[in-house]
Specification:
The structure holds three protein chains of three kinds.
Chain A lengths: L12 H6 L17 E7 L5 E7 L1 H4 L4 E5 L42 E2 L5 E7 L2 H10 L1 E6 L6 H6 L14 E3 L11 E12 L8 E7 L2 E6 L4 H12 L6 E4 L15 H12 L4 E4 L2 H7 L3 E12 L5 E11 L10 H7 L9 E9 L14 H19 L3 H8 L8 E2 L5 E2 L4 H12 L1 H14 L3 E11 L10 E7 L5 E5 L8 H13 L6 E5 L16 H28 L6 E4 L4 E4 L2 E6 L1 H7 L5 E7 L8 E11 L5 E11 L6 H20 L31 E3 L18 H17 L14 H14 L1
Parallel strand pairs in A: 1-12, 10-11, 14-15, 20-21, 27-28
Antiparallel strand pairs in A: 1-5, 2-4, 2-6, 3-5, 7-15, 8-13, 9-10, 9-12, 13-14, 16-17, 18-26, 19-20, 19-25, 22-23, 23-24, 26-27
Chain B lengths: L1 E2 L2 E2 L10 H8 L18 E4 L2 E4 L12 E3 L12 H8 L9 H14 L5 H7 L11 H19 L1
Parallel strand pairs in B: 1-5
Antiparallel strand pairs in B: 1-2, 3-4, 3-5
Chain C lengths: L6 E4 L3 H11 L3 E4 L5 H6 L7 E4 L9 E3 L3 E5 L4 H5 L2 H6 L1 H7 L5 H6 L2 H7 L5 H8 L3 E6 L2 E6 L4 E3 L2 E2 L6 E8 L6 E6 L9 E6 L2 E5 L6 E2 L1 H8 L4 H5 L16 H22 L1
Parallel strand pairs in C: 1-3, 2-3
Antiparallel strand pairs in C: 4-5, 5-10, 6-7, 6-10, 8-9, 11-12, 12-13, 13-14
Helix pairs in contact in C: 5-8
Classes of the chains: A alpha+beta, B alpha+beta, C alpha+beta.
């Protein structure tokens, strides 16, 4: 029996549970002995001119080795100019990040554009000295008006980049969808608020230079891509750079590649001829690490009174913060997935990207797709409310039918496989939907203080969106019969080591405990793409599988030679890991025998696997919430989900991904928001204020099983890392509004905090 | 002070936090720092058997006391039942919150050997995890409780 | 983040603590559990030159039955208050409220004295001692004095303690049998109260409805005048000056105060 699909506990855990992981701050290697500690001096202003930096007092403080500003950066090449001088302001599409007039500096030059922007670096013997000395660096700021929020940015009264003449680097307007013939059309603005990713380990990097070779340890989702970015930044041959991602304490999209702060650490190490290490504090993290979401949606939905949706239009405004990094690209994914799991005749989309004096936006668990789902799910609820139909019923009437796959959407996506109605029916049955509605009716009838809300969401998302970048793997069978897997994918909690070893055991019959998986060291694996967009198993896992097959064919030849049999007669018994001649079970050779016979060449295969197209996982969630109508407090009491990501390799791992995704999605709906005041000061700049969700706010989750295999890859796998987040936010959000819908409330923006929910209730009661 | 049963003695600056003493002086790096505001619990260790956030205790305050970190939990090669339960229940992913979470859970069961699910959730309110959604952490603590209480009553 | 440099001194007796504090002058602070002070010092919002560690003074950590009253040492931790059988029987409001402070780790280190002296209007225990009409005992160079809870909290983070004076114990009149309730309204379990209400018999105190913990005197007067609890609760926001912040504006807090007082009075009545 194959190990694939079975419940295997993780091989990573014993080390993490007894000795703890080795994160960047824990790396104790000779190259980093005596490393200077880097402390950044960061802007306390959202928008200001820099009139001068006085480092004299800091330089005189104990343990200070150097205080570095942009004037010291004279030893690396300027960033390459963007093609043809950069996109014209207000263009319809632009590469991200932007260069040219929009260029983001390494250290602030004459202007800061968000609280937390790096202005100077202090290098000290230890971190305590660094914090003291950083306080002594005096920066002369001349504050400017801050641009906070989308409206202010669009108004353009203050420009972040005066040379650009606008705050809107990309403007791609939507045309109206075909609303003629609709009985009912509903339109409204919806805020998909700015949230902070908060991986438990913040950003961190360490660097040393030895004999012209740069080694960087960095908390990243992509060691290999980071190597090329560093090569570009320093004008170096990538072969002279080694990037190591040690244990990484969570990423959630915000650790894709590496930030300018990490490039600066490597630069400072060269500039001062001393290894250097930087580990950010949480307060630094909450403003320095990119944020996610931060979109405003205008949805317009129309259809017939019998529940058929005919037309949908989505206009997205992306607040991308002070610099258009990946934030400028995310709304293209939102647009791509705007139609959701529905078969709609007319869907039109558009987006604008605006700059504000806030932390730059980048990927955060789902990266553009949760926003698309949130928008259309809210629109579906608004439409259902308008025509007085059950929201689950409206969804069922409009889901893409199972016989229409592959399904081409009006937004340009080609959904591969699915059973959307099956997922909805399964989750409704699992939740006991009819019973929940009955209980809701009873509470409304009695006028209970605590009302019940039921939120339903259906979703489809795109995973491995950049399938053509593919992923790498090298599988080596060692002379002792063990195997070593080198993967270009990058684990930071997902369980790659366990999953890849399962694939090897399945393909080669080498038991998992004899398989070592290595990731995140570019000396061992120079090429690879990394982990984001729920791509790992369907690309990196398949790469391992393909490498296994190549190793197996090499081994077949070797075994044939060893056993003096024809290749065609040799077979591998994957239950024992023995090579045998067909019809002669007595004679067999082990993997060790075969590997030793390979001589100096060794027994190994490298594969760069590319899929031809992305995959489209889907599912449905039901959230059940209680809302205290006297205080506005919301309690999630049940969360039931179907998340279909194709064939499951290891249910333990996929369940873990779903759990974590659900919690983060619920957190966005209920609690989390990065808030700024009118001057651009963060009001949620510590974890005392930023309301990361805890165990006490959540129930256990009810996960239902559904597996509709992908057909594009041999594992049948789609991505599962982001699905939970994508499905849970709209279900949770909808449950809150549903609980108070009998008061006439149609919408409450996220996060649905007690004060906001009570304000909506209060307003509804006052208007009755 | 005593760390994981061994005496550790050092002259440190008055302001040295216990977490830095454990990491940099005792050289035990499992314990992590996750925030600045005593909010996240990643730095949780046991001080005389009770969970504390070692980022909010001065090393000097722990002078003469017993500190237990994640590294001191196992009995040789045999994992503590809490470690084992985190393993079997998949109670960890990236592993960064894990040392603090496990120590908080050990302290929780020391005070309440048979908690309900709600008591476990409330008892872990001071420890943030971003990966697991807490679902399997809660299961792990309940599993460990079954195991430990079962052992104790035999 | 780490505190700015300071000098650490450990006291081995109350007298020594007072001497060390006197020698340190205005820039000296007592360090008990440190769970109010150290977080501020790490953010460098507090920069004392000297910390006098009174944590080791076990003589200030006790819960004592003194006949018609209970005396609690200032260094008693929230955890010890929450798990005390004596308090559960005699002062259930105090035991219960202490069990809601912060999180388990905070309760293992944080002390009642530290919480009261820090005088954060969003903290739980200041309102509890206020509702219980407790008496706070302070020792200074000139000896001990008693301060009624109602006269202890003077302003935001400001108490009636003189520089160099140390809170040593808190005295409570036994309250067994009287109805009580503690209503703590938070966004997350771990958060400080957006609004809180402590009810002890006919006494009602409010958390986070002004710069200091407040007695809801209008509610108490209405109750004393025979008003029904629900009607009395309508007066809960009178005389309060709550803040606007990301958790709610002033009007929301006033509303919460009325709701929570009504719930608190109802619960207290059910227990009385």
């Amino acid at each position: 029996m194959s190990i694939l699909g079975t419940r295997v506990v993780r091989t990573e855990d014993p080390r993490l549970l007894t000795a703890g992981g080795v994160y960047v701050d824990d790396v104790r290697v000779p190259e980093l002995a005596g490393a200077a500690r880097v402390t950044f001096v960061r802007s306390p202003f959202a928008h200001a001119l820099i009139k001068g930096v006085d480092a004299a007092a800091a330089l005189a403080a104990p343990g200070v080795l150097a205080v570095l500003t942009f004037t010291d950066i004279n030893d690396i090449p300027p960033p390459p100019p963007p093609p043809e001088g950069g996109p014209p302001p207000g263009s319809e599409a632009a590469p991200m990040p932007l260069g040219g007039v929009w260029q983001e500096p390494l250290l602030a030059v004459d202007r800061v554009r968000f609280v937390g922007e790096p202005v100077a670096m202090v290098l000290t013997d230890d971190s305590y000295q660094g914090e003291d000395a950083a306080e002594l660096v005096t920066v002369d700021y001349e504050p400017l008006p801050a641009v906070v929020g989308i409206e202010q940015s669009l108004a353009g009264g203050t420009l972040l980049f005066p040379d650009a003449g606008t705050n809107i680097p990309v403007d791609h307007a939507a045309v109206d969808a075909a609303f003629d013939g609709c009985d009912v059309v509903v339109e409204r603005d919806i805020v998909n608020q700015r949230v902070a990713p908060v991986p438990m380990e913040g950003r961190a990097a360490a660097a040393c230079w030895q004999g012209g070779k740069l080694t960087v340890w960095v908390s990243t989702q992509n060691a290999q891509i980071s190597r090329f970015i560093l090569a570009g930044a320093f004008g170096m041959d990538p072969g002279s750079i080694r990037v190591v991602a040690p244990d990484v304490g969570g990423g959630f999209g915000a650790k894709v590649a590496l930030d300018r702060d990490a490039i600066l650490v490597a630069w400072a190490a060269r500039h001062t001829s001393r290894p250097a290490r930087w580990v950010e504090t949480r307060s630094e993290n909450l403003t320095g690490m990119t944020h996610g979401r931060a979109q405003r949606h205008t949805v317009k939905i129309g259809g017939t009174r019998d529940g058929r949706v005919l037309a949908y239009r989505l206009d997205v405004v992306q607040d991308t913060g002070a610099y258009a990094r990946m934030g400028g690209f995310l709304p293209t994914l939102t647009n791509l997935m705007a139609a959701g799991p529905y078969d709609l005749a007319s869907v039109t989309v558009g987006y604008r990207v605006t700059l504000t004096n806030t932390t730059p936006i980048s990927a955060y668990r789902g990266a553009g797709r949760p926003e698309a789902t949130a928008a259309i799910e809210r629109a579906m609820d608004l439409f259902a409310a308008e025509i007085g139909m059950d929201p689950a019923e409206v969804r069922r009437k409009n889901l893409v039918p199972s016989d229409k796959f592959p399904y081409q959407t009006p937004c340009g996506a080609l959904y591969d496989t699915g059973d959307y109605a099956g997922a909805l029916d399964k989750v409704l049955a699992g939740a006991g939907y009819a019973g929940l509605r009955a209980e809701q009716a009873r509470r409304r009838e009695r006028g209970d203080v605590v009302q019940l809300g039921i939120g339903v969401s259906s979703y489809v998302e795109i995973t491995a969106a950049d399938a053509d970048n593919g992923e790498t793997a090298r599988v080596v069978v060692n002379d002792d019969g063990t195997a070593t897997v080198y993967t270009g994918s990058s684990a930071h909690g997902q369980g790659h080591h366990t999953a890849w070893a399962m694939i090897v055991e399945n393909d080669l019959g080498i038991p998992m405990n004899k398989v070592t998986v290595k990731h995140g060291d570019t000396d061992e694996m120079p090429f690879g793409t990394g982990t984001y967009a729920s791509r790992s198993l369907q690309l990196g896992g398949v790469a391992v599988h393909r490498a296994d097959l190549e190793v197996r064919e090499q081994a077949r030849k070797l075994a044939a030679d060893l056993m003096e049999a024809s290749e065609a007669d040799l077979e591998l018994d994957t239950s024992t890991g023995l090579w045998q001649v067909r019809g002669d079970p007595g004679a067999s050779r082990t993997w060790a025998d075969v590997a030793r016979h390979s001589g100096a060449e060794g027994l190994s295969a490298f594969v760069h696997y590319k899929d031809g197209a992305p995959t489209f996982p889907f599912g449905s969630h039901v959230a059940v919430a209680e809302v205290d109508t006297e205080t506005g407090k919301v309690t999630l009491i049940r969360h039931v989900t179907v998340d279909d990501a194709g064939t499951v390799l290891n249910p333990v791992l996929t369940e873990g991904q779903r759990h974590g995704g659900i919690a983060q999605g619920v957190a966005q709906a209920l609690l989390e928001e990065m808030v700024y005041d009118a001057d651009g000061n963060p009001l949620t700049g510590t974890l005392a204020d930023y309301a990361a969700i805890t165990a006490a706010e959540l129930p256990s989750f009810e996960l239902l099983v559904s597996e509709t295999p992908a057909t594009i890859n041999p594992l049948g796998a789609k991505g599962i890392g982001e699905a939970g987040t994508i499905g849970s936010t709209p279900a949770m959000h909808s449950a809150v509004i549903d609980a108070v819908s009998h008061l006439g409330i149609r919408h409450i923006d996220m996060p649905t905090t007690p004060s906001r929910v009570w304000a909506a209730i209060s307003e509804a009661r006052n208007s009755q | 002070m005593t760390v994981n049963g061994s005496p550790v003695e050092a002259d440190v600056a008055d302001r040295t936090l216990l977490v830095h003493f454990v990491r940099d002086v005792a050289g035990l790096t499992a314990t992590n720092v996750g925030c600045d505001t005593s909010s996240c619990g990643a730095c949780t260790v046991l001080l005389d058997g009770q969970s504390v956030k070692s980022c909010t205790v001065l090393a000097a305050q722990a002078d003469g006391h017993e500190i237990t970190t994640l590294e001191g939990l196992a009995n040789g090669d045999e994992m503590h039942p809490m470690q084992r339960a985190f393993h079997t229940e998949h109670g960890l992913q990236c592993g960064f919150c894990t040392p603090g979470m496990v120590m908080a859970a050990v302290s929780l069961l020391a005070e309440n050997p048979r908690p309900t699910e709600q008591q476990v959730r409330a008892g872990l309110e001071g420890n943030l995890c971003r990966c697991t959604g807490y679902h399997n952490i809660v299961r792990a603590v309940l599993t460990a409780a079954d195991h430990m209480d079962g052992q104790a009553s035999r | 983040m780490i505190p700015a440099p300071f000098t650490y001194q450990r006291a081995s007796s109350v007298d020594e603590a007072l001497e060390l504090a006197a020698a340190g002058g205005e820039d000296a602070k007592f360090l008990a559990g440190g769970h109010s002070l150290l977080p501020l010092m790490k953010l460098r919002l507090a920069v004392p030159a000297t910390l006098v560690d009174i944590g080791p003074l076990r003589e200030l950590s006790f819960i004592r039955d003194d006949g018609d009253q209970i005396t609690v040492g200032a260094l008693t931790t929230h955890h010890d208050l929450a798990t005390s059988g004596l308090l559960a029987a005699e002062l259930p409001l105090l035991a219960h409220a202490a069990g809601t402070v912060g999180d388990p780790q905070v309760r293992h280190r944080g002390t009642i004295g530290g919480s009261l002296v820090h005088a954060d209007p969003a903290a739980d225990l200041p309102a509890v001692v206020l509702a219980m009409d407790a008496t706070l005992v302070a020792r200074g160079p000139g000896g001990s004095r008693e301060i009624p809870a109602g006269q202890f909290f003077l302003g935001l983070f400001e108490t009636a303690l003189q520089p160099g004076e140390l809170l040593t114990e808190i005295r409570f009149t036994k309250a067994a049998g009287a109805g009580w309730s503690f209503q703590k309204f938070t966004k997350r379990a771990i958060d400080w109260a957006i609004v809180g209400v402590a009810v002890q018999g006919g006494n009602v105190a409010l958390v986070n409805m002004g710069s200091i913990p407040l007695r809801a005197t209008a509610v108490e007067q209405a109750l004393a005048g025979g008003a029904a609890p629900a009607d009395a609760a309508a007066h809960a926001a009178e005389g309060t000056t709550p803040v606007d912040d990301i958790n709610g504006d002033c009007g929301y807090r006033e509303h919460l105060a009325r709701v929570l007082v009504a719930r608190g009075l109802a619960e207290a009545r059910s227990r009385g």
